[in-house]
Each structure stands twice: as C-alpha cells, then as structure tokens.
Write a sequence for this structure.
C-alpha cells in the first residue's frame, strides 16, 4: 500500500469511498448531534431551551457580546439570536446596553437573574460533558481538546481568507 501526503501527514491509500467511521466531518457531526440531543433534553428538564443555554453560557464566559458576536460563538443564525435575546431581556435574564466604544452597537450581558441561572445549570452542563468523555484518560482528553481547537482555528482562518 502506498502513502499519499496531505498537509504534511502521510496517509495510507484508501479506496475511493472510505469507511464513514474514518471521515472527520461524519464523526464530528454524529458526536455533536448526540451531545446536543442529550443536552437539549437535560436543559428542557430544567426549563431552559438549548438556544437560551448557549446564550447564557457564552455570556457567562465572555461577559458581554453583540448579537453578531453571539451568533458566531453560538453557531446560531442572527435572526434566532435576536428572537432569543429579546425574550431573555423580557424575562430578565440578560440586559441590553449600548457599547461604550461604538454607540451604534448594543451588547447583551447577563443580569443577576441570568447569572444565578447559569450557576444553577452549570453542574448539569458539566455532568453532561463528563459523560461524553468518561472513557478517555486525562491525557487523551487534553489531546482531543488541543486537536479540536487546532482544527477549529484552521477553519476560522480559512473562512476569513475566503471572505
């Protein structure tokens, strides 16, 4: 079997149609779908939609974001973010404020009520994540995270270069 090079990695020659289990997009999509389905159910049990959870989690990590920044970080359409954010403002979970550096841009940030909800739900989210990786050693987990971050960064760079 001869080898072919792809971005500095020697790969064995494969049939024209490789096994699905060897295709990164297939594996990532499959894992993501299953994780999201389970998380959606857990959050539903807690009375929170998955869209709300994504916004809460990002705002908890980042502090404040514009709707377009939230859309990019949550991988949701801007129109969905706008609807979700409007409801979350109405429900007192987030606050909308004008960005000091650019008054044309409004930002969202967690309210005290939103912060309390994140604190209540964070253990649920962490437990959900632990289930997904419970068969990995710590070294395997760190390697997986590092490799996924590397792929994500490369994809971000490619998308910026193409736009």
């Amino acid at each position: 079997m001869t080898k072919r090079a792809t971005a500095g990695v020697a790969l064995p020659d494969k049939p024209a149609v490789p096994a699905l289990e060897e295709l990164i997009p297939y594996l990532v999509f499959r894992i993501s779908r299953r994780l999201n389905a389970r998380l959606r159910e857990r959050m539903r049990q807690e009375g929170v939609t998955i869209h709300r959870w994504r916004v809460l989690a990002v705002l908890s990590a980042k502090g404040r974001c514009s709707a377009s920044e939230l859309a990019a970080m949550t991988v949701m359409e801007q129109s969905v973010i706008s609807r979700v954010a409007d409801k979350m403002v109405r429900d007192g979970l987030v606050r909308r404020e004008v960005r000091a550096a650019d008054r044309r841009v409004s930002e969202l940030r967690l309210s005290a009520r939103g912060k309390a909800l994140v604190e209540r739900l964070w253990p649920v989210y962490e437990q959900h994540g632990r289930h997904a990786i419970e068969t990995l050693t710590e070294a395997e987990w760190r390697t997986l995270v590092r490799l996924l971050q590397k792929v994500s960064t490369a994809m971000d760079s490619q998308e910026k270069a193409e736009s």
User: Anything to note?
Assistant: Residues 63 and 118 are 13 Å apart (CA to CA). The chain has a mean pLDDT of 89. The beta strands are 3-6, 9-12, 64-66, 94-99, 102-110.
